[in-house]
Amino acid sequence: MVNETLYKKIAEFTKLNNSTLVAVSKIKPAADVQKMYDMGQRDFGENYVQELVEKQAQLPADILWHFIGHLQSNKVKYIAPFVHLIQSVDSEKLLKEIDKQAAKNNRKINVLLQMHIAEEQTKFGFDEHELMNLDVNLYPNVHITGLMGMATFTEDKEKVKREFEQLQSFYKNFEDAKKIELNTLSMGMSEDYELAINCGSNMIRIGSLLFGKRS
Ligand SMILES: *Cc1c(COP(=O)(O)O)cnc(C)c1O
Q1: What pLDDT was estimated at residue 119?
Q2: Class for domain 4-211, per CATH?
């Protein structure tokens, strides 16, 4: 169920902070997406390829679909024709496949590189060393527009803050080192989006606050 009051509040907050709100609709019905679309929302995030493909087919064509879940290389082809931004790029193998599928579809695909900042080993992403060693010029059909990260799932706000600050400062170093222009730092979810914005995020990914808890 869509929480209209919270949606309006968070949409207003993101706008005031020159940020982009990505409404994370994973596991939620297409009708909920439609409802938020009717309230003006255009950026939606999904974690599962099949679910995204099904929703894309039945919802308005001008929705900007963000892929934010762990993506297997062999599934890139299903979302390559339409995806707006793949936020969860976590390997060179995946970059290579996105580049190939983008070329096949005669388009450039926007991506964020996911950086591992949390303590949990279950979370995906490159570490700083891997990112610094990445040759960003090998993928002509991929447009690297920024970085994405997920903080540790914890009540310890100081820890979350340190992780966000680490990603924010790395973002600048990476841009300088690679001589590329980035425009997106995606960090912050339902529990920590205000903190993330204070730490320099300009894209937040909110699910449960907008659509209710997932079962
Ligand atoms: C599910 C998910 C979100 C949204 O999480 P909430 O806590 O429900 O806001 C954001 N980012 C990623 C990568 C996710 O998988």
Answers
A1: 87
A2: alpha beta
